[in-house]
Write a structure and sequence with these properties.
heterodimer, A: alpha/beta, about 10% strand, B: mainly alpha, about 85% helix, about 0% strand
């Protein structure tokens, strides 16, 4: 098992944990119940873990749970990571449209790296262009087919490897700073294994995560 | 073999539904998505579609009963029904919705009332066939599980 510079197992970092996972998690948003059932089946058939919600606001609520976990430090190794690897949303929904939801996601420093795909029953070129310009990866015409769902994996992997690269860069730059102060690490290691980090290590970890977030915003 | 006879009946029913234009190839997509991991998928989607459609038809009726018709609301509901019928492969219902939206756009009340009647007619005709289909499937499943025991 790899140990990084803070004597912490790699698996304690949510990013690396999810990178090891073979099953990706898709959040599907659609106000129509039959359509939700269909998109769920299409995604599950393609081996995705699926969460469905019936509105943009519920989607943000769900994603908000994920943000809280990013802010807090991973205290327990068993802590569940609700990570969403892709969001697929209907365009026409009452209240918050799929386009509104897309804007909110791309406008959030925590959520903007999640790829978003829009679905619509109407083929309106201006609508399609608007969504793509706002950062949507794809625009699917309904009814969505299995061949459409097959197009999702590259987008998920592209964003994941981007995050992984950023994180690796961060670790490398930090290891230059902290390798000199790596004395009495055995105690720290034992504490980390039990899942409780000593205070100084927690502070360093906090700084790492903050720097990562700043780097994300810069891109 | 009763099971063979039942399967034959089911096949004939489905063939006629496709031939009549009640169903299109999207329904075949649904059938392909059903597998051992989700054996009740088609039945589930059909049931959800029917419940959703009846809710929408009730709302459409209410809107058209008003003295002043809210055509935007009307169109929004028809759009919903058009979407879900398209998703399950309910072709005739979908086509009737397309017609209906035309009248909404023209704010033609008489046209809308007639269009709603057509949609209802197509929907209940389809529902009738869906019910027969599900009954046959249940009988086949019951027969198959009895054979296994």
């Amino acid at each position: 098992m790899l140990r990084d510079f803070v004597g912490l197992q790699y698996s304690h970092f949510p990013l690396f944990q999810s990178f090891k996972k073979t099953q990706f998690h898709v959040l599907a948003v659609d106000d129509s119940l039959p359509d939700r059932k269909l998109i769920e089946r299409l995604l599950k058939t393609s081996s995705y873990q699926v969460t469905t919600v019936d509105s943009g606001s519920k989607a943000l609520e769900f994603l908000g749970l994920q943000v809280d976990k990013v802010n807090k430090l991973p205290i327990s190794p068993d802590q569940q990571d609700i990570e969403v690897n892709l969001i697929i949303t209907d365009y026409c929904m009452p209240g918050m449209t799929g386009y509104d939801l897309l804007k909110k996601i791309k406008g959030s420093s925590y959520l903007k790296d999640i790829p978003v795909v829009i679905m619509s029953s109407e083929n309106v070129p201006s609508r399609i262009n608007r969504c793509l310009e706002e950062g949507a990866e794809e625009f699917f015409l309904k009814p969505v087919q299995l061949s459409d769902v097959n197009k999702l994996k590259p987008h998920i992997l592209k964003w994941k490897s981007k995050k992984h690269y950023q994180h690796k860069q961060l670790l490398q730059s930090n290891s230059l700073i902290t390798s000199s102060s790596n004395n009495s690490s055995s105690n720290k290691r034992r504490a980390a294994d039990c899942g409780v980090l000593p205070d100084r290590t927690r502070l360093r970890l906090n700084r790492c995560l903050t720097t990562l977030r700043i780097k994300e915003r810069q891109i | 073999m009763a099971s063979v006879a039942l399967r034959e009946q089911l096949n004939q029913l489905l063939t006629s539904m496709f031939a009549e234009g009640l169903l299109d190839q999207q329904f075949q997509q649904l059938q392909m998505l059903q597998d051992s991991g989700s054996p009740g998928f088609v039945a589930e989607v059909i049931t959800l579609f029917c419940e959703d459609s009846e809710r929408i038809l009730t709302e459409l009726t209410k809107v058209l009963e008003q003295t002043i018709v809210d055509y935007q609301k009307l169109d929004a509901y028809v759009h919903q029904l058009k979407g879900s019928s398209s998703s399950v492969g309910a072709q005739n219902v979908k086509l009737a919705c397309v017609q209906f939206r035309q009248f909404c756009e023209e704010t033609n009340k008489e046209g809308c009332i007639q269009a709603l009647n057509v949609v209802k007619h197509e929907y209940y005709h389809l529902r009738n066939k869906f019910e027969k289909m599900l009954q046959l499937e249940q009988r086949i499943q019951a027969y198959d599980s009895k054979q296994q025991n």
